[in-house]
Amino acid sequence: MTAHSNPQASAATALSQLLTEHPEVVGLTWSINTLGVLEGEQHAETGHGQVVDDCAQVLGGTAAHTVLSRADDRLGLAQLTTTWRDVPVHVWASYPEAPIGGAL
Q1: Contact at 8 Å (CB) between 40 and 11?
Q2: 39 C-beta neighbours (distance < 10 Å), count
Q3: pLDDT tens across 58-102, in order?
Q4: b/e map 47-56, b = 16+ CB within 10 Å
Q5: ∠ CA 81-86-89 to the nearest 5 degrees?
Q6: Quick one: pLDDT band at residue 1, thresholds 50, 70, 90?
Q7: Are 57 and 82 in contact, with CB atoms under 8 Å apart?
Q8: How far apart are CA 64 and CA 68, in angstroms?
Q9: Residue 4 near residue 81, CB atoms below 8 Å
Q10: Is the pLDDT at 33 greater than 80, yes or no?
Q11: Positive or negative torsion for Cα 57, 59, 65, 70
């Protein structure tokens, strides 16, 4: 069985290449789902999703940023969905946002 006949093997190869060729992309927890999607996630206390922007520079695509609010709580979310070396990739980060009119 070759790596290209198994989507998880292809994703594992792509992840190995990514981490070897771009050691600057750090701070993510990586996994491969059963469909062969390479997934990176970060639950950060700071950074405003910069790691997702960094991944977009390496992997291609555009990071999307949004803020979710509930009462006085605000949570930032950055996401990137792209394809790198024929492997689907989803990277996301969540981080606290300052309340409206206040400091974090």
Answers
A1: no
A2: 17
A3: 999 999 999 999 888 899 999 999 999 999 999 999 999 877 766
A4: bebbbbbbbb
A5: 25
A6: very low
A7: no
A8: 13
A9: no
A10: yes
A11: negative
